[in-house]
Amino acid sequence: MITLNVDLQQRSYPILIGPALLEEANCFLPHIPGRQVLVVTNETIAPLYLDKLKNTLHTMQIRDLILPDGEQYKTLETLNLIFDKLLQEGFDRSCTLIALGGGVVGDITGFAAASYQRGVNFIQAPTTLLAQVDSSVGGKTGVNHSLGKNMIGAFYQPRAVIADTNTLNTLDDRQLSAGMAEVIKYGLIRDDKFLGWLEAHVEQIMQRDPAHLAEAIQRSCINKAEVVTADELESGQRALLNLGHTYGHAIETGMGYGVWLHGEAVGAGICLAVQHSAILGWISEPDVKRVVNLISRVGLPTSRPDKLSADDMLTNMRLDKKVHNGVIRLVLLQSVGNAIVTGDYPPETLRRTLDIA
Amino acid sequence: MITLNVDLQQRSYPILIGPALLEEANCFLPHIPGRQVLVVTNETIAPLYLDKLKNTLHTMQIRDLILPDGEQYKTLETLNLIFDKLLQEGFDRSCTLIALGGGVVGDITGFAAASYQRGVNFIQAPTTLLAQVDSSVGGKTGVNHSLGKNMIGAFYQPRAVIADTNTLNTLDDRQLSAGMAEVIKYGLIRDDKFLGWLEAHVEQIMQRDPAHLAEAIQRSCINKAEVVTADELESGQRALLNLGHTYGHAIETGMGYGVWLHGEAVGAGICLAVQHSAILGWISEPDVKRVVNLISRVGLPTSRPDKLSADDMLTNMRLDKKVHNGVIRLVLLQSVGNAIVTGDYPPETLRRTLDIA
After folding, report:
1. Predicted complex ipTM
2. Is the pTM here over 0.90, yes or no?
3. Fold of B2-170
4. Which of A118, A140, A156, A234 is best to mutate for the B interface (most B CBs within 10 A)?
5. Which end of chain A has the smaller Cβ count within 10 Å, N or C?
6. Is A289 a catalytic residue?
7. CATH domain A173-356 topology
């Protein structure tokens, strides 16, 4: 087992990464201060891992809630199902919520923990690659609104992130690919050595070789933890983690939540961001080819869906959280391994990017 | 105009109290960092003060949202109306929400500000006595759930509290009485001099003499600001501010939100708390009579509604946020002007209290 630390003073917490951690009571119990525990999961994960985790925590007063699976359920209505359950069970402020699942379960359960009785204990137990390398770390929680992705939520840190890498054995190929979008992102924005390693070992990772998967997760989490430690509330460099996300959110909102997976939309969004950076003359065409090639090798789309026009994309991008005084601020590459957040680009370059890809 | 300060380091903010402040752009503009402003109010307050405030802020890009009036609308559904409006208007992270109204408008708008894009700017412009002396100060925001009061929310501080005392001229008598429950509370838990002053001047206050009302508001806000400064997140003494509230929330939940006003339920709850304290032998029967007399003189109920049995009350009290491991923790008086939070009382004394009153 590997232990990393997210250093946020009194809100610091560990990230535990390793096989079979869902069976290790010692990983969970130090982070559960009371006796009441609600495990929130979904209908896909529950048959695979819920009993295992409940058995591990059998000394607690443990309850579970099984949500429908999919981004289209990341709503205020689903959030309220968690509050209903907590109140029906008489759970008090000393209770702990555990999110057992992917990014959707983690985001919605985290926001429930932030809001129930104005804040209760929370543990992330991510079961997808995307959640293990990205969404479970850093405290971004929330739900979608029909007019925009992740528009309602809170910054709320978990007490621990416990990533059982065995859960990746049951992940379907599409979900594995989706997770790789966020892995590649770290290389592109701040870690060119990691990017080179990924290019050299992408086949082993996609074949789920445990050692290579574990290394990809660990190096991703180190990057994520460093960024979050430096800028918890995204007043500066944390925004770099959104490479490809403004384009990607426009795809998710435009297609309807759940049609493209988040990681698929981010994969295409990364290709749009590098294309845009090349149009600005910041990176070269071979750089673009290099990135598009890697995104393609992990099985992700490299351009926007045919169903959405450039105009559709622009309309949806204007609703992003990084819009400020009408300007769409984007994460763009100054070189491979080095990104900036900027609204200072000629608007027609965004239009040209969307027309091309 | 009087200015008080709530000292919470980088989250510090002023409380401005005085006549005609809704007409003073200089009170508002220093606390509005961007140009987008949404005023959230209700159908009772809008015809009286909305145009006045919009005129004061005419240099901003100002929009408004008028909610239905009443505790029964303090729900996730109403909260979502605020998100709908913000997204339809394309409001970004630099926007400011202003709550123009009483406690319900303030609580729900504050939670919307805490959650929209994970947090935007927020100003409280309270228009009821209860909101001016209590709910607008301190950062408690949230909505109700059918199974419990204020069960969903966040601690989220405003950038300023701007209390225009002229708005009390249009407050109906029932709302004025309700606000007095929270005013009397401060005297009982920590300020016996203030309690004595209230007993001496209750007639002038209830006749809305401006000088006496202003003094009651100021002395209440000084108490509230001191408590919040010492314990922002209610890990200790802030819980004393809940004198009468656990009994009161049980009345509100049991009768249906909005049937009794919050302040009416707290008035009766305070009488139950002093009765309970007397049963425990901590205060005398004359002390009880003194408090019940004052609650009665401001026009508030002094016992639970006939419609709720002692059993109903107990059932609802068990759902309170201060329940811990099944024990109902209560604010009780050790003497007049000195309260404690405790779960360490013989359970039958709570039952006897509810049987009596």
Report:
1. 0.94
2. yes
3. Rossmann fold (3.40.50)
4. A118
5. N
6. no
7. Dehydroquinate synthase-like, alpha domain (1.20.1090)
